[in-house]
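Side project, low priority. Logging it here so it doesn't get lost.
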Amino acid sequence: MGKREVDRLKETGCPLSLAVFEIIQFSEISQKYGYKVSDTLMRALVDGCNTNPRS
């Protein structure tokens, strides 16, 4: 999160949320399918979270 977003939150008084995901089998996926697939999985998770973060 950049300074601009933090400043916007301070100005608007909007609360800040933090999401933490535990992907139980992530290391197994990485070992079985390689880092390219595990990176794609992580990016898809982040993209899904960023689709509409302020709703």
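Brief comment: Helices lie at 3-12, 26-33, 35-50.
Revisit when time allows.
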